[in-house]
Design goal:
Number of strands: 11
Helix content: 40-55%
Shape: flat
Strand order of the largest sheet: 2-3-1-5-4-9-10-11
Number of helices: 10
Distance between the termini: 16 Å
Order of helices and strands: HHHHEHEEHEEEHEEHEEEHH
Structural class: alpha+beta
């Protein structure tokens, strides 16, 4: 691990130097790429600096301890060494977490689907609470929220809604919201004061950018052949028609309406790019649908990730045994503490899988 972070520290320092070069500052694309790498490596660099400083303190205290004869000073040195060793163990864990692979989707915008589950109108009202909660959280981050579709009720509830939240890192924060949310409260229409339990399901998906179609020549089988049909003697007697087969997908396109083989090839490549765009877009849409299905579940009260208990003012996230009594603030968008706890838990779980 130390070898890895030393390498990353050296890379960080190299990037720092590159960022100061006039030619890189003048090149906005290059400078943006350098800034991105710098920001990604800076936390690791700072941890490495702290790790080195603590290790140096241990080494220096150990040398002093070997020659020190005063008992009081020896006691102080021993205490400092033990304190530093404890910090070293903590830094080990913190560095391991920083070295975990990053989710490629973390920086993407996010699509959130909210659907009322069990509980009738009360479930729809709770769906509205969740939608407002996510919107307020996004506002606090200065992210843009767009309502893509909504099916609301006369009482202000939400049966179904789809919202897009645009902002760097949006998916990294909202991805923990997928699942069934359960609310326990007394509905305004309940005269006996009896607590009702209702649910709403949430699906959180990263928004993919348009597919960038790149075609490798090695993946193409290009045939030329003699055109048929109208066009006169020239069309019928030269190999001007072009057929292109994209081997990985099996997509075949052909063009023969130009007299020039070069022009037919250009047209065929243009058609192929369009077909490949549709093909890859369909794959993304299918992945989106599969992810959504896996996240939504049935909406049954037992399939819960979190409970919102209004009488007690309590939030309970059942995945990490997290409990807090700040319900009012939470439903008004104060989600950072829970999201941070979920993020740490996810990283620790990944670390355990790697260790095993």
């Amino acid at each position: 691990m130390l070898k890895k972070i030393r390498f990353l520290k050296e890379k960080f320092l190299e990037i720092e130097k590159e960022m100061l070069k006039p030619e890189n500052i003048a090149n906005s694309k290059k400078y943006t790429e350098l800034c991105k790498e710098y920001n990604e490596l800076e936390p690791i660099s700072l941890k490495y600096d702290e790790y080195s400083k603590v290790q140096s303190t241990i080494d220096a205290d150990t040398e002093l301890l070997a020659v020190e004869t005063d008992n009081e000073m020896r006691s102080m040195l021993n205490d400092e060494i033990e304190s530093c060793k404890t910090r070293m163990s903590e830094l080990d864990e913190e560095i391991k977490l920083l070295l975990l692979p990053k989710d490629d989707n973390d920086d993407r915008n996010v699509i959130i689907e909210i659907r009322s589950g069990a509980g009738g109108e009360e479930a729809s009202l709770f769906g509205g609470v969740l939608m407002r909660m996510y919107t307020m959280y996004a506002d606090g981050k200065r992210w843009k929220t767009e309502v893509l579709s909504i099916n609301d009720t006369e009482l202000g509830g939400v049966k179904e809604a789809t919202i897009r939240i645009s902002g760097k890192g949006a998916y990294s924060k909202f991805k923990y919201e997928s699942g069934v949310h359960r609310v326990q409260r007394v509905p305004e229409t309940e005269s006996s004061g009896r607590i009702h339990t209702s649910t709403a399901t949430v699906a959180v998906l990263p928004e993919h950018e348009e597919v960038d179609v790149e075609i490798n020549e090695k993946d193409l089988n290009i045939d030329v052949y003699r055109s048929g049909g109208a066009g006169g003697q020239h069309v019928n007697t030269t190999d001007s028609a072009v057929r292109i087969t994209h081997l990985p997908t099996g997509i075949v396109v052909a063009c023969q309406d130009e007299r020039s083989q070069i022009k037919n090839r250009e047209k065929a490549m243009s058609i192929l790019k369009s077909k490949l765009y549709d093909y890859y877009q369909m794959q993304i849409d299918e992945e989106y649908a599969n992810n959504r299905r896996s996240q939504v579940g049935t909406g049954d009260r037992s399939e819960r990730i979190r409970t919102y208990n209004y009488p007690q003012g309590r939030i309970s996230d059942h995945r990490i045994n997290y409990t807090a009594y700040n319900l009012d603030a939470f439903v008004n968008g104060d989600l950072d503490d829970l999201i941070a706890s979920l993020s740490v838990a996810e990283k620790k779980e990944k670390l355990e899988r790697i260790t095993l």
